[in-house]
Amino acid sequence: MSRLAPPAHDRGITTLTLDSPANRNALSAALVGELATALDDCAADDTVRAVVLTHTGNTFCAGADLTAPPDPHALVALMRQIVALPKPVVARVAGHVRAGGLGLLGACDISAAGPDASFALTESRLGLAPAVISLPLLPRIDPRAAARYYLTGERFDATEAARIGLITLAAEEVDQALAPVLDGLRKASPQGLAASKELVTATVLSNFDQHAEDLIARSAALFASAEAREGMTAFLERREPAWVS
Predict the structure, then answer these.
(1) Rounded (10°) angle between helices 72-84 and 29-44
(2) Fewer CB in a 10 Å sphere around the end CB: N or C, the chain?
C-alpha cells in the first residue's frame, strides 16, 4: 500500500501528500523510497514549476519509523534531494512534526505552519541525537535555539518555529498564507528559480557534502547502543526510560 497519495497538479504546482496517518506519517523505508521517486518525477517534468509537500491526518511527520526504519544513507539522500532539486519545495504543515520530520521540513525551501502545528526534537529523550537531520537544520536555524531544543526535547509552536528559522512563516490560515508564495513561484521562470535556489542552498549542500558520512556513522553508533535500545523500547511500551528520575 502506498504511503504517498497520488500527486495533484494545479497550474504548475505539484502537491505531494504524505498519506500514512496510521503511523503518523513516520519515515519508513517505504515512504522514503516513494517520496524520492515522486521528487525525481517532478524534477523531470517540465510542467512542474514547484512542489508542495503536505500531509493527511494531524501529523506532518513523526520522525523515523522505529518499526521499519529507512537506511540512514537513504534518509540523507532524500533530504539532499529536496535541497538540490532544481525546483522549489514548499512545506505545508497543519499538524505535528517530530524528530526526523524536522529534517524533512528543514530541507524544504519555504514552509508555512498553522496554529495546530507543534514541533519537537525528541531524540535526546531516546538516547539518540538529531545527527543526520542536522545537515539541513543547523545551517538554517538560530544556534541558541538549536542548543535548547536539541538538548531538552521541548515542544514549541509555529510562532517559535518561525522565530528560530525552522519555518518561513506561521499563519492562522496556512493556505491563505501560501497563496502569494505559490503565485510568486508561478511567475518566475524555470531557469530563474533553479539559479536562485542554487544560491540560497549552497551552504546547506556544502554541509551535506562535508559531514554526511560522519553523521551517519554517529547515528548508527547511537542506535546500536544499550541506552538507545532502552529509550526506544520505553517509547514503544509507552513508559519512561530507566534514566528518568
Answers:
(1) 30
(2) C
| pLDDT, mean of residues 105-119 | 98
- Cell numbers 498553522 correspond to 114
Nearest to 124 by CA among 49, 206, 222, 31: 222
Cα–Cα dist 69/28, whole Å: 5
Cβ-proximal residues to 64 (8 Å cutoff; 6+ apart), any chain? 26, 27, 70, 75, 99, 100
pLDDT tens-digit readout, 215-245: 999 999 999 999 999 999 999 899 999 999 8
Asked whether the whole model's pTM tops 0.85, one would answer: yes
Q: Is 27 exposed, middle or buried (0-12, 13-18, 19+ CB in 10 A)?
A: buried
Edge-first strand order for the sheet with 96-98 is 59-61, 96-98, 118-120, 156-157
Q: Which residues are CB-contacts of 189 (< 8 A; sequence separation ≥ 6)? A: none
